[in-house]
Amino acid sequence: CIEQSWFLSADTQLYIISPIILFNIEKKPWKTCLACLGFCVVSAAYAFIITFNNNYPTFYFEGTSEYQHYLYTPTFVRMPPWLLGMVFGYLIFKYKQISIPRGANLSLWVFSLSIMIFLILVQCWLTRSAYNVLIAATYNSLARPAWAIAFGLIIFSCVTGHGG
Questions:
Q1: pTM, to two decimals
Q2: Is-contact 141 47, C-beta < 8 A?
Q3: Cβ–Cβ under 8 Å, residues 42 and 75
Q4: Spatial distance between the Cα atoms of 120 and 48, rounded to a whole number of angstroms
Q5: What rounded mean pLDDT belongs to the chain?
Q6: What gap in Å lies between CA 101 and CA 11, rounded to an integer?
Q7: What is the 3-state secondary structure (H, E, C) of the chain?
Q8: % of the chain beyond a pLDDT of 70
Q9: pLDDT digits over 92-130, tens only?
C-alpha cells in the first residue's frame, strides 16, 4: 500500500494551499480564477514538454519508474483538475441560482459528454496505434484538465437545477 500512498501526499499538499486560494477568491475572485487557470496552463506545458523530450508513453501501465516519478505522481501535474474543481466550486457558490436557457444548457451537456466520449475513444485508439510522441504529449497535457472541465460543467448544470 505504500506505493499507492503518493495520491494522499498530493492531495494533502493541495489541501494545504486551499486556504490561500479560498481567501483570495473571496477578495479578488476573477484574478484568483485566472491565476488558477494560469497554473493549469503551466502544468499542462510541463507535462507536454516532459513527455515530448523523454518520449514518455501516454499511459501509466506502459511507463517506467521515470514516467511515474516525473509525470504521473508529481503534485503539480495532478494540480489542474483540482484547481478547476476549486474554480467550479466558486462558480457554483456564486451562481447557484442562475437561470440557464434551455438551448445553452443542452449545449453544455452535449459539449461535456462529447469531451468525455472523445477522451475515451482517443484512449482506446492510442492503445491500439503506433506510438507518436506529439500525440502522447498532447494527450498527457490535456486529458485530465479536459475531463475536469467536462465533469465540472455537468456538476454545475445539475447543482443549478438544470440537470435534466
A1: 0.89
A2: yes
A3: no
A4: 19
A5: 90
A6: 36
A7: CCHHHHHHHHHHHHHHHHHHHHHHHHHCHHHHHHHHHHHHHHHHHHHHHHHHHHCCCCCHHHCCHHHHHHHHCCHHHHHHHHHHHHHHHHHHHHCCCCCCCHHHHHHHHHHHHHHHHHHHHHHHHHHHCCCCHHHHHHHHHHHHHHHHHHHHHHHHHHHCCCCC
A8: 95
A9: 999 888 888 999 999 999 999 999 999 999 988 988 889
